[in-house]
Amino acid sequence: MASQSQGIQQLLQAEKRAAEKVADARKRKARRLKQATRRQVQGMQSSQQRNRERVLAQLLGMVCDVRPQVHPNYRITA
């Protein structure tokens, strides 16, 4: 009987160690996921900033480059 209870205790301890390992693995996975997400968000933000600057430069160039012309449909009437 004593060997049975000792075997049960060993199984319970092994189960507890396994549960701790699983919990640690889940924590590591969550931490890696957060880091990867953070890196991805930072990359998107830097990309957005670069694109924003490029678009603003193009818009300013178009707005400031005004060439006055007479429209082809305009008819001079006397």
TrEMBL record:
InterPro entries: V-ATPase_G. Keywords: Hydrogen ion transport, Ion transport, Membrane, Transport. Residues 31-51 are annotated as: Disordered. Coiled coil: none annotated. Residues 40-49 have a biased composition (Polar residues). GO terms for molecular function: ATP hydrolysis activity; proton-transporting ATPase activity, rotational mechanism. GO terms for biological process: synaptic vesicle lumen acidification. Its main location: membrane. One of its GO terms (cellular component) is vacuolar proton-transporting V-type ATPase, V1 domain. It is found in: Endomembrane system. V-ATPase is a heteromultimeric enzyme made up of two complexes: the ATP-hydrolytic V1 complex and the proton translocation V0 complex. The V1 complex consists of three catalytic AB heterodimers that form a heterohexamer, three peripheral stalks each consisting of EG heterodimers, one central rotor including subunits D and F, and the regulatory subunits C and H. The proton translocation complex V0 consists of the proton transport subunit a, a ring of proteolipid subunits c9c'', rotary subunit d, subunits e and f, and the accessory subunits ATP6AP1/Ac45 and ATP6AP2/PRR. Belongs to the V-ATPase G subunit family. This is V-type proton ATPase subunit G 2 isoform X2. It comes from Dipodomys ordii.
